[in-house]
């Protein structure tokens, strides 16, 4: 075959490739370009040189590589329906047209369905951040839309998700919804304190909800308000939640903290989450079986800063020095306030300078007070458990800014809440659960050893 004939054949193949690309604008494949680029290529090889190669004869090998049949490849590609699959998260500013355009689909019929159909409208209704997986053909016509969002039933939120599926069937769209359980995946992370706990967990891409659980896990060992030091280190094992194998982007997309180690001021504390298989109760325990859960939490909020401690101070309104009989926690209005222990609501309402206040009676003639609340979520006489939400931070009563005033009383006498929390009795591990507990500890120790090597990193197993 002459060089001229070969060039003519190549030109014809190129014209066919251009026609294929024009017919399938979304199916630009690297395989076609790769096939053309290797047309009439020859390979050259030289035998490797030995140490005395100067005395050995040299031989050059030339071998022609078989040229792929471009014509048949183009025919085979044309016979297949090439499509597009794209994942997007909904935005608060989205319209049906903008969502489809961002996903690479151009389908007025699909946009009309999302605007007019009762189920179709739910794609963009509610909060933004829903997971949208769209499949379209080569012309941009939508074939399927799958939307994953938090479960609609209150009792299933946090454990399930809603899957909305829209499919093109016989030239029209059909939609259906179903509920499926979220799947837990184990993740590891570690970090070093440079400025604050949340700054360190942010650097390691660890969710804030897990950081809060870590503060709770070690609250009986470390006062995170006063004792955190630059250079402190932590390693953790925790759960992330997935929907159909995809990470959950909405709030509540993380599970529980499973285990952790925290080195504070040179001393290392370890803890593991353990659920009693008989009673179903769960708590954090040290690796020696000592419970991290005490009768009282160290703080009535998951994480905040102390603005005024249990000591003499200059009263911000009276402008006189007097004993401050509680601890003030600075936090934005609306921040959740929780009960530090089990008990009964003794008072819930307005009380002079305290504004909206809740008082809880605990065992052993002990009581706690939560003042200046913007909202009260419990009623007098109600039985509550440790960690239960009582209300929200505010600045009602005599307050110069949003904060929580918290008091701890024993026999009517004011005590330093942080001292009481550390000295309170711990929950014990039942004897029958020790074997199961030791197996759990052995498992998480291996994971924590791996996590320790990942400073500033969070990754799923």
From TrEMBL:
Residues 323-417 form the M23ase beta-sheet core domain. Pfam families: Peptidase_M23. This is Murein DD-endopeptidase MepM/ murein hydrolase activator NlpD. Gene3D superfamilies: 3.10.450.350, Glucose Permease (Domain IIA). The lineage of its organism: Bacteria, Pseudomonadati, Pseudomonadota, Betaproteobacteria, Burkholderiales. One of its GO terms (molecular function) is hydrolase activity. Its cofactor is Zn(2+). It comes from Roseateles saccharophilus (Pseudomonas saccharophila). Keywords: Hydrolase, Metal-binding, Metalloprotease, Protease, Zinc. Coiled coil: none annotated. CDD domains: M23_peptidase (cd12797). The keyword Protease applies.
